[in-house]
Amino acid sequence: MRGLVPIPEIRIGASKHQVCHRAKGKDMAKIDLPKQRLENWKEAMLQKMAEVLERYRSVRLFLDICVKCEACADKCQFFLGTGDPKNMPVARADLFRKVYKRYFTLGGKIWGRANEAEELDETVLQEWVTYFYQCSECRRCAVFCPYGIDTAEITMAAREIMAAAGVATKYVTEVVAKVYDTGNNLGIWPAAWKDNCAFLEQDLKDTEGLDVKFPVDAVGAEVLLIPPSADNFVNTDTMIGYAKMFHAAGISWTTSTYCNEGGNFGLFLNYANLKKANNRIIGAARQLKVKKIYWGE
Questions:
Q1: Which residue blocks in 140-266 are alpha helix, DSSP H?
Q2: Do the Cβ atoms of 172 and 97 come closer than 8 Å?
Q3: Which residues contact 251 (CB under 8 A, 6 or more apart)?
Q4: What is the mean pLDDT of residues 173-187?
């Protein structure tokens, strides 16, 4: 595409009905979150917000220094696609900022709405659920912000806060739960992973006459490969490419049935699951006693 991207006509509330499906209780339980929205959800969210503001000082900084120049506004694909002004990164961050001001700043506590502060209530929570999940955390807005504000961090913080109160979406929680069940986002069980690796070995022999191995759970290999799990079932040309590369270089390698996922959906939910999913990679490396980790994605 050449030239300037056309700015869409403002359509207030255009995407307010595009709400993700709620998380299932069984998935929430597997990832150490409340099975359903807590009765004291407001208190739980404010408690988690205080923790986030204390632990991740960048979030507080970004909330305080934004001057609302709106350089980010037309950089978000969700705003460009919907025209909904609350999908402007600055406006989405304002959903967080107004609650932050009400409970964590002196001006907000004293002057309330006159200081752009607002109570955390059902209406505000619904806006959080709607618009903070209409963000892919791509960080394109951060590239154009003259202050370097990373709005994706605000989105991540908001999702962290909601998750603590039992508010999350089906897709993200389901994917993270699959990682703990099967080792990957797609829900591929170890037997299926091994079977497809054996299939690719045979397919290479039949089609190209190559004796290239696809090792699984090989203890003592030099390299542990952590690919996106889709590479072994959908993008199989990529998986074959890995194997050919290691074969040509003479490097011993393996994949792991405990952890065979390079994508981390904890990034789209909360910090605890982000770290827990990442730690599985280290766990797999220690189990198999490898020297190096090659991480695709």
A1: 140-144, 151-164, 170-182, 190-208, 236-249
A2: no
A3: 222, 223
A4: 95
> In this structure, what DSSP letter does residue 183 have?
S
Domain closes at, from 168, 199, 218: 168
259-269: average pLDDT: 93
Pair (102, 200) in one structural domain = no
Tell me the helices (H) and strands (E) count for the chain, helix number first: 13, 3
The boundaries of the domain holding residue 240 are 175-295
Please identify which residue in the block is written with the tokens 């951060």: 142
Given 151, 168, 185, which residue is the final one in a domain?
168
- Both tokens assigned to 66: 């934004």
164 plus 241 within the same structural domain: no
Place of tokens 């632990």: 55
223 forms beta bridges with 253, 292
In a domain, residue 5? The reply is no
Q: Is residue 221 part of a domain?
A: yes
Please give the helix or strand (H or E) that residue 254 lies within, else none: strand 253-254
179 and 277 assigned to the same domain: yes
Q: pLDDT tens digits for 116-154? A: 899 999 999 999 999 999 999 999 999 999 999 999 999
Cα angle for residues 185, 22, 46 (degrees, 5° grid): 105
Q: Measured between alpha carbons, how far is residue 116 from residues 59, 69, 149 in Å? A: 18, 16, 20
* CA–CA dist 189, 191 (Å, integer): 6
Distance, CA of 44 to CA of 263 (rounded, Å): 29
Residue labelled with tokens 């090989």: 218
Q: How many residues does the chain have?
A: 297
CA 295 to chain centre: 17
Torsion of Cα atoms, 60 then 65 then 66 then 69, to 10°: -170
φ, ψ (nearest 5 deg) of residue 142: -65, -30
